[in-house]
Design brief:
This protein is of the alpha+beta class. It is globular and about 65 Å long. The longest helix has 25 residues, at about 370-395. It is built from 17 helices and 24 strands. Helix 11 runs antiparallel to helix 13 and helix 13 (about 370-395) crosses helix 14 (about 415-425). A hairpin with a 4-residue loop joins strand 10 (about 180) and strand 11. It folds into two domains: about 1-245, ATPase, nucleotide binding domain (Nucleotidyltransferase, domain 5, 2-Layer Sandwich), CATH 3.30.420; about 275-280 and about 295-435 and about 460-495, Nucleotidyltransferase, domain 5 (2-Layer Sandwich), CATH 3.30.420.40. The protein has a seven-stranded mixed sheet with strand order 18-19-17-16-22-23-24, sandwiched between helices.
């Protein structure tokens, strides 16, 4: 029995086929067109390009696995995107994605009208620019002629599922990031929709993540090569699905994932709330469980930005090293602390802990003797410091922490793994499989297909440890000192940049 997971990310769509033991049988990625930024702080993607990439990725894995072997399909994807369709299911405008920061005025209006405390109580989160609801209000206020055409609102992965199956569906984990879900009750918040004037008929049906919600349509089968009628589960947003792929399902289990953004994620058995809204409280992909997470907007993006603008080309060198490997090798020649250089990774504003879309990145402490290697190491350390901010808040909230598993592209770098262990001051673990959200989506599909009776059972039987990294005592002591300096930089610079 084979299971297919499809992850609709920011930079590309990935398809992964696993067996019932969690072994990856086939995988493929199709890159997306780079997101557009028509104005400073804006971020948009063409949803139709997600479907094009999904077709390509699925067709690629079907060269290695027969379509009739795939028993169920799961989805994961970037969260918060506003994908707007008309009555015929056609895209109305480019999707406004998670890192877009144009909706400050709408967030203020939501907060003023609902009240900051009531927002936390009713939808478990503050009104943030990245969330979906403020984007809907922005379109309604600024593009009324387009808003009049809108008949369906979908999240990114749910648009690809719609194209594959014809069904409008989402899951509680992804819907938690819209500001329209009653996270405690795991259902759309009629009170929030009424007060914001959003017609509930525009929204998809919401399911628990392992529930079968659709089947591949005849048209979807023709486009992708999949078998018509193959069941599809609701899946989860990329963070919850990635946590499933890493086995972060029980209280005490925490993950630190570095992709384009960075996320520290903790499973909970209750909807734990931060009264200041510095971390998100969402439904988990496991029925009856929730999670809290803090977000660094520009984690891996910080390194990619440096590579593209000031580093080396993406092709790497003639010896087969890619650009990131070369930069990591250079950074490893610099001692912990980067000889005083520090990086604030606020290229796209910041969520945790500052909730400030206008925060700006900064490179601090340069002297004439510093090199590119110092800057790269400072970026790696700065991203880890930013993720540690979330761990600090978890401690304040009494969220248990027994172990930290690393995920995403950052977990592939030996140096970045060690830096994280040193900055967090505790051992970190790396799972054997590196497929993250796509594998998590496949495991959810397996639960929906009856391969496993629960997500807990799926993770217990498939998630295996590859490596455990201990912190270096001297480096960890230095990182504690540097973290205190790091925390002082944002308030010192806030009124200047």
């Amino acid at each position: 029995m084979k299971l297919l997971g499809i992850d609709v990310g920011t930079s590309g769509t990935r398809a992964v086929v696993s067996d019932e033991r969690g072994n990856v049988i086939a995988s493929a990625t199709s890159e997306h067109e780079a997101f557009a930024s028509p104005r400073m702080g804006w971020a948009e993607q063409d949803a139709r390009d997600w479907w094009r990439a999904g077709i390509e990725a699925v067709r690629a894995v079907l060269t290695e696995v027969r379509a009739d072997e795939i028993k169920c399909i799961g989805f994961s994807g970037q969260m918060h995107g506003a994908t707007l369709l008309d009555a015929k299911g056609k895209v109305v405008r480019p999707a406004i994605i998670w890192c877009d920061g144009r909706t400050s005025a709408q967030c203020r209006r939501i907060t003023d009208e609902i009240g900051a405390d009531e927002l936390i109580e009713s939808v478990a989160n503050p009104a943030l620019e990245g969330f979906t609801l403020p984007k809907l209000l922005w379109v309604r206020e600024n593009e009324p002629e387009l808003w009049e055409r809108v008949r369906t609102i979908l999240l990114p992965k749910d648009y690809v599922r719609f194209k594959l199956t014809g069904e409008r569906a989402t899951d509680v984990a992804d819907a938690s990031g819209t500001l329209m879900l009653d996270v405690k009750r795991r259902a759309w918040s009629s009170a929030m929709l009424d007060r914001m004037g959003i017609d509930a008929a525009l929204l998809p049906v919401v399911y628990e993540s392992p529930e079968v919600c659709a089947r591949v349509s005849a048209e979807g089968a023709r486009e992708t090569g999949l078998m018509e009628g193959t069941p599809v589960v609701a899946g989860a947003g990329d963070q919850a699905a990635g946590a499933v792929g890493l086995g972060i399902v029980h209280p005490g289990a925490v993950s630190a994932t570095i992709g384009t953004s960075g996320v520290v994620f903790a499973a909970t058995d209750r909807p734990a709330l931060d009264a200041r809204g510095r971390v998100h409280t969402f439904c988990h992909a496991i029925p009856g469980r929730w999670h809290v997470m803090g977000v660094t907007q520009a984690a891996g993006l910080s390194l990619r930005w440096f590579r593209d603008q000031f580093g080396i080309g993406g092709a790497g060198d003639t010896e087969g090293h890619d650009a990131y490997e070369r930069l990591s090798e250079e950074a490893a020649t610099v001692p912990p602390g980067s000889d005083g250089v520090m990086w604030l990774p606020y290229l796209m504003g910041e969520r945790t802990p500052h909730l400030d879309p206008h925060a700006r990145a900064a490179l601090i402490g340069l002297t004439a003797n510093h090199t590119r290697a110092h800057v790269v190491r400072a970026i790696l350390e700065g991203v880890a410091f930013s993720l540690r901010d979330t761990l600090t808040i978890f401690n304040e909230m009494n969220v248990p922490l027994e172990k930290i598993k690393l995920g995403g592209g950052g977990a592939r770098s030996k140096l970045w793994r060690q830096i994280q262990a040193d900055v967090y001051g505790c051992p970190v673990e790396v799972a054997e499989a590196e497929e993250g959200a796509a594998l998590g989506a496949a495991l959810l599909a397996g639960v929906g297909a009856g391969v496993w009776s629960s997500v807990d059972e799926a993770c217990a039987q498939t998630v295996r440890l590859r490596e455990r990294i201990e912190p270096d005592a001297d480096a960890a002591k230095l990182m504690n000192t540097r973290y205190e300096v790091y925390k002082s930089l944002y308030p010192a610079l806030r009124g200047i940049v």
